[in-house]
Amino acid sequence: MHLNSFHLFLFLTSGIVCQYDYEGYYPFESDYGYAHSMLEPSTAVCAPECNCPITYPTAMYCDNLKLKSFPIIPSGIKYLYLRNNMIEGIDNNAFDNVTNLEWLILDHNYLENSKIKGNIFSKLKNLKKLHINYNNLTEVVGPLPSSLDDLQLTNNKISKISPSTLEGLVNLTVIHLQHNQLSEDGLSGVFKGLNSLLYLDLSFNKLSKLPSGLPPNILMLYFDNNQITNIPDEYFKKFQALQYLRLSHNKLTDSGIPGNVFNISTLIELDLSYNQLKSIPTVNEHLENYYLQVNQINKFVVSSFCKVVGVLAYSRITHLRLDANNLTRADLPQEMYNCLRMAADISLE
Q: What is the CATH number of domain 231-349?
């Protein structure tokens, strides 16, 4: 991926790769000018209970209206927001007037799989974003159109995904599945063939093992707040571009981490905080941000960061968190400062 393309992806995902709040972080969702639109008059071509701002005439906002069913959606609407309502189902003809819909945002409703009729989403041949966060889904909805690039189903009750549900979604770039009830058995074969996938968040689920069959081009993998105890040897070797990896709040121990499993040359950020580690896992010299706070680490070995130290051989670590471990400043060897010469922040307290 070219640098300019990566910067664009970071912009689209709204800063999700920066240092984050460990109590839980969720990326800001673009609202297509919603904050300003509420001050503007609505267009004539709009459901009467909703708002279609003059400056965004193809967007229809029906948020916070206590709706129990879909309003009539006029032809020409491409961006539909129905957040914070009481909708339990979707009728088979709900989108008959708007088969060109591109964004469908249904967060904070009461949607259930059994009340979503027919192949309702597959009719939307131009759909790019589908957000059904904070609902009552027990399965991933589908079938879905191949145009989809952003799927968000967080804070539901999803425990398994059929291998065919995501099949053929060649444009899918972002998947949010955090805060569900997924185990590794419920993910078998699910992500096969998703070669455009760059971002996958499976945090706050019930994984005891890392899922198999993930596509090799992923940039960001988030597994925090699961029950993972070990990592298979060479698990990350197949990933060609992995840059951000989070495994905080799991049950990792030294015996569950093979010696070189995190020695990944593309990796920029690694989060292993809130585990049960007693030593620092070895990382590649190109790693920049390393989070190890709240473990049981009692020794600092320079070779975890630098194989050798020299004029051109040193770690690129900028931020290193070791607070809430069994280390003090006195435990840091002198040669550490030459190895970690780029470090702007090393936290021990």
A: 3.80.10.10
